[in-house]
Records
---
Amino acid sequence: MAEAIDLGFDPDALREKYRQERDKRLREDGNNQYQEVTGQFSHYVEDPYLDREIEREALFDEVEVAIIGGGFGGLLAGARLREAGVQDIRMIEKGGEFGGTWYWNRYPGAACDIEAYVYLPLLEETGYMPPKKYVDGADILAYSQQIARKYDLYRDVLFQTEVGEVHWDAGVSRWVVQTNRGDAFKARFLIMSNGPLNRPKLPGIPGIEDYRGHTFHTSRWDYNYTGGNADGGLTGLADKKVAIIGTGATAVQCVPHLAEGAAELYVFQRTPSSIDERNDRPTDTQWWQNLEPGWHQKRMDNFNTLVSGGVAEEDLVNDGWTEIIRNLLLMIQTEKDSGLSMEELQAKMELADFQKMESIRARVDAVVNDPNTAEHLKPFYRQFCKRPCFHDDYLPAFNRDNVTLVDTNGRGVERITEKGIVANGVEYEVDCIVFGTGFEVGTDYQRRCGYEIHGRTGESLSDHWRDGARTFHGLHVHGFPNLFMMGHTQTGFTANYPHALNEQSKHIGYVINQCEAGNHKVVEASAEAEEAWVQTIISLARMNEQFLADCTPGYYNNEGKPSERSLQDANYGAGPVAFFKVLDDWREEGLMSGLDLNAG
Ligand code: NDP
């Protein structure tokens, strides 16, 4: 095996090891393993950040565009509509402020590990200079509010308001939006931007309701209990034994602070995350001031191309996310290969991936003192099977005497008792359990967004999507006129999610503008266009089917159970670069093809 010797690892052995690790984690119940946060668990989603309850009269009026969600999706939609001259907007937001995921996720250490210069939207429009390459959650929350001020969106928002039901009133060709505050107002257009990871999930562990200690989910951090703030200083935990369940991207960021604050910290792990170096640094103001107009889109496009497997002449972001592609190019250049077939390219990609993950595993050995703990912290799967993490303090936290890694060998926590957590047959008594267990992804759309929507014929979206998602471009749905959905289902998905939202919002702004210009009262995806798009999504998803099937379970692969339905619910398999081009070309063509105008 000359190749194995040259590379410093044996690809066959690694492939087999990855398979074994995945198999350990496969479970029959897939998405059903999680406990929905309703009923006796609904306190897990109460808003701990509210300083005052807003009081207002219920609204029964009419607006041009209603936008559900005040995160980056809603903000971008609002911004693009303003740019298109739309003044009559109403935004509906469950939280007490703009910010979406950054409103809710205020856990200690919360930060974005996608470079701020590509992650934060509208940087040229607002003129905001992120203070660091990787910006903190609190700064992102403040920046969300800056966007809202810039586009004068505060006058149009209903905070602390949850949508309960939406239906199309065919008599007046308007959406009727009903909320938990008794509103029932009309809107000509409706944009749904509920967020892809908005519904916290709990593990469906037996005994979870028996626990008598303190608990909360990371997305509703209880600073009253822990003390401190997003920068740490969790002094309330100084005499506490604390457990955190989960070792995903959120836990990776808050574990170092828990480790510092708690008397004892137990980290319960089912699958280790891949932890690359973060290497944060302050923004070079001179570089910033010399950026040429148009730099932001160029940089976002460059990052997007590289992380979705494309080739670009230069790597502008140049960090851990893009490194895998640098490895690949290096390999190809070294071997002077040219004209590679798709299979050959995929084989090279796998080798580059192995190489990258070998360096991630070597980093664990270099940082973590105890060899046994280090071994358990090593991820054995391909880099993009799970969200890669970038942190300089997570692995060193396991060198502290007060921190114990409880690896569950892929099985997860067994049981919760009145006093604590049982794993590997051992009960760990703790004062507090922090659930770093993530958010619902693969469950029904209606369950995740929290309200039902009824279209032109009265059919609900849940019924329309009974056998899987059905959209045109991921944005329009047949039978649901003047509706736009923002998200990742059947659209181009990129690790830099706000980039996708930006492209979607530009597209929505264009369609609404065309309707105004052409005096079209109603716009709706045709049945044929929707069906053709669904078939495109399914056939492209088949290209990724094997990759996902080989991955360790998680929300990227429907908890290890890729199915016909999950192929249909997938994103655009040819990647975000190709998808954005589909939208660009469609707008360029100017025919609004696939949409019935004045229908209904
Ligand atoms: P994840 O879904 O990524 O992680 C949930 C964790 O809980 C996993 O480690 C999971 O294990 C574990 N878990 C679930 N059930 C059990 C169980 N029964 N026993 C033990 N462990 C269990 O959620 P996160 O909140 O960490 O992250 C969600 C997403 O938010 C990320 O993927 C990322 O997209 C985003 N994020 C982005 C950040 C950024 O920098 N931009 C920072 C933080 C989050 P297993 O892996 O085995 O399923």
---
Amino acid sequence: MNDLRDKYIGLIAAAGDESTLEDLRVQAVGKKGEISLLMRELGKMSPEERQTAGPALNALKDEINSALSAKKAALEDAALDERLRGEWLDVTLPGRPRRMGTIHPISQVTEEVTAIFADMGFSVAEGPQIDTDWYNFDALNIPGHHPARAEMDTFYMHRAEGDNRPPHVLRTHTSPVQIRSMEKTGAPIRVIAPGRVYRADYDQTHTPMFHQVEGLAIDKDISMANLKWVLEEFVKAYFEVDDVELRFRASHFPFTEPSAEVDIRCSWEGGTLKVGEGDDWLEILGSGMVHPKVLQNAGVDPSEWQGFAFGMGIDRIAMLKYGIPDLRAFFDSDLRWLRHYGFAALDVPTLHAGLS
Ligand code: PHE
């Protein structure tokens, strides 16, 4: 019995996996195992012999069974440890960001502009990119013969012969949204309207599709002074500086009276565009006091209400802020350019967290 014990305890201790262990169990205590066979011998023994051999065999069987289950548990623990080691992951390591594409500078700037004007109480309005010539021109006091129509290099929608619907155009500016928003909510009103606009024009600072943001504030006593303050506040917040030099130039738009164009001081030196320095000026917006006829066309009584409007080039101010010298690159869809100038998808600009 001692030999058997030494043999099986040794083999069990040396077993490397669960199937070896199972083989050993069958060999030792299985139905035809060595110990089970010995137990069958008990019947042939004398009662005295049986009295010592019986309990001894039972004890041996118990010892081997518990050695088997202890070893089984140890093998299972080892297998679990092994698996945990293999699947180990350091959750304190910084994440590896997966490339999800980037936010185009135009989208980023539109968000920035919206955040700044929202803070000044402007809500966002929208209008269609394909609009009637009434909204794009007539309602804005640009009659059919007006030279502004020709100057705008308008894209007209094709019309089949016999089509009697009013002519449609790709909107040449966001100003039609002034009319649509006043029609919708009347006065007082304070909205901005960012969006795409179209003109047949193409060079370093002009593309046939570009972006504007319209601003409109109508109330009882809004003046040019309010316009100037709003624009200065905007420009300071947008460029994140205390001082930006703006130039207000007397101008003319059929839909505002008086009118002013606003330029911003900049430099093109060395092919990079920098704001706030140099001897160049880049025109960024047109503005003025909304013409009484425009208010009237939108159903707002000009003897009661007045206010300002402006239309700003989003692409222009994006070029200035991010030092992008050629507007055409915005619309080339060059992935290398987007990776360089784009913004992380989760970097949403807010006034409290920073705009850029
Ligand atoms: N719509 C004008 C343009 O596109 C800009 C503008 C808007 C001017 C509002 C005055 C008031 O050039």
---
Amino acid sequence: MRTLSTSGAHDKEAKDLVKTEADQQEDHEDNDAAPMQGLASLPVFFDLAGKRVLLAGGSARAAWKAELLQAAGAEVDVICPDPGAGIVALAGRCELVHLTQRRWQPEDFNGMALAFGDFLAKDDAAAFYAAARLARVSANLIDRPEFCDFQVGTIIDRSPLVIAISTKGASPVFALALRGWLEALLPRAIKLWATAAEGWRAKLKVRAPSARIQRRFWEMFVSKALGARAPEAADFDALLTAALGESRGETQSPRAQGSVALVGAGPGDPELLTLKALRVLQAADVVLYDDLVAPEIIGMARREARMIAVGKRGYRASCKQDDIIAKMIMLAEAGKKVVRLKGGDPSIFGRGNEEIASLTAAGVSVEIVAGITAALGAAASLKLSLTERDRARRVQFITAHAHDGRLPDDIDWSSLCDPRAASAVYMGLRTLEALSQRLLAEGIDPFTPAILVERATCPDERRIFGTIADLPAKAATAAPSGPCLVLIGHAFDSASERQNEASRTVGSLSA
Ligand code: SAH
């Protein structure tokens, strides 16, 4: 389990943060922890080009295996007395697949790198497996884990990059679902980068004989390969120049490579993280995270990444904003890819402009990754729309928390009282009573629905339904401790009615 460092112990941490990957590897070599255990099976990527593979069976799934094996370059000897149409067709159109119509014999194992068998009867499978063992050929009997020396994982093919998933036969459906999920996350151009890597490896050895420079080249390569764009021929020279420049001590290079991304982590539910946020997070060397960000999301960073909590909740002892900015600049200048993980969306009440301006002024490259803001998460979770054709033509996000912690004085009250507006009030719990009083004094309809949502989209989300007049008292009784959003407006009439309906039902049931 990764240890999370807090923002204390600054100096030592700052040194640790600029450690190279190689330093970290050495740290690992020094460590005397117990050796890893319990690995269900060892994934091995077998080079089958030009090798022979025996396949006994003629079913559709045997045909699929044959197709996979020939795709990996194997000569496939299919032996089966009564082959199905699929395998006959495959043998007809693929010169690596040779079909022989007879029963298999022990001699068929001679010269085989691997053997596969597909039999209906268990005894037939057992006999084939025993013959394979005798011939010392590793075998896989399709769908019979008890007769398998190895499993073929579920494959994601971005050749030369190949990803295989195995549940050791526990649940192939699970492995397939996982494949879909991973497919969605893989950067689109990853195959092209993997292909480029193949071509560049030999070239790099000639142009940069030092192992250290080569390693730096590949580190910088990775940060590009995990990005959105496809490789270009010029990338090789650019990466090589940067790696060579760093080795000559030209300080511009690491600075040019370091960066900061302000990343929206969404309102809480880890599934509301965007694919882009996940990709950027997983490429980060250092992650500075707000205390509103869910632990599951923090856990999605690379194991090697340094994690720093920079909690900044109003009214609490906190890391100063200037310190956070200074730290981000220091890390980026040391060549680190820094992610500043923020609750919701970075552009909503997150002091985004301050951070962007300071980082830009320091010459640090900045990227912003949008997230789902709390109001949108809360609306989805309450199953309501923030706009409605006649009742809510405008949505406004406001904060009811001024610099001094009080209700701001300079809010456009008439826009909040507008019966055709929906308002989402951020940081509005402490000032809720004052807000309610003020809006009533400004002439808002006292029956305007007001909903307080605590920890929207989190498993322990709570909602308090009321009106702008009675919500403060209800909230005081409930005493929420998590982040709270207040939704105000007639757009929420239907949600309030649904709620009243539900509580009447509960009431009559318990009566
Ligand atoms: N950038 C964030 C907002 C930061 S201000 C965003 O886009 O959501 C912090 C305030 O956001 C909290 O005081 C609370 O009002 C609101 N908030 C953030 N997460 C929330 C959640 N899960 N549920 C309810 N309110 C939330």
